[in-house]
Amino acid sequence: MRRVAQQPAYILHNRAYRNTSLLIDALTRDYGRIGLVARGVRSSNAARRARLQAFRELRLSYTGGGELKNLSDVEEIAPAPSLHGEVLACGYYVNELLLRLTLKDDPHDGLFDTYRHALAGLSGGADIETTLRVFELRLLECLGYGLVLDRDDQGESLDPARYYQYVTDAAPVASSTPLPERGACRVRGACLIALREGRLPENCRAEAKQLLQTALQAHLGNKSLRSREFMADLRRLRDRGDGS
């Protein structure tokens, strides 16, 4: 039987299982996303159950080689990050992307640190839009779907002053048409360069969001993300409160 000890991990999601247990999705440093069963924690081990909540950085020990491993020990590395309101919804969005776009037991170089960096940004008061766009960009890169942000389809360096038609899985094409072509996003070279450098100027935010959501949707399929709906509801409530 395979045994893994003290594996750094984050809890992405948990749900009740049978009468006393939890089913857990965790992102591990060395083994990618894994499925675990934590037996008995809902009835007799409140402290252990509290540690198995989303966003916590832990060291997990477990046994088993199938799709569902048996959790044997949990050690907390750091306190849970402070996420509330819209920031909490963004955390759920990041977790849902990982749950939807990764396969179990399929590790990707850099993904664990990419997730850790995103959580640190959200909990540390960094700009939310920049944190999410950089996470989306790095996630696509880790999964092998990285965007071309350093050259156009002719191999030329991007011109900050030009507009480009960007189709997922292809290099940007210089364009003089005022509207995006079917299936493409129209993005300025300056915004593509800023994304490459991990920046998000105010005048690039809408273009960057459209570009990355289009790229992600190509791999998500037709099923919508629940966390996006949750974020939209929160923003509607916030705007209603601001206008009252």
Written overview of the protein:
This protein folds into 2 domains: 3-76, OB fold (Dihydrolipoamide Acetyltransferase, E2P) (Beta Barrel); 85-242, de novo design (two linked rop proteins) (Up-down Bundle). α3 runs parallel beside α5 and α5 (128-142) packs parallel to α7 (205-220). The protein has helices spanning 41-44, 46-51, 85-101, 111-123, 128-142, 189-196, 205-220, 226-242, and strands at 3-17, 21-28, 32-38, 57-63, 68-76, 163-166, 173-175, 185-188. The strands form 2 sheets. A 5-stranded mixed β-barrel has the order 1-2-3-5-4. The longest helix has 17 residues, at 85-101. The N and C termini lie far apart (61 Å). With 244 residues, it is α+β, with helices and mostly antiparallel strands. A hairpin with a 6-residue loop joins β6 (163-166) and β7. It has 8 helices and 8 strands.
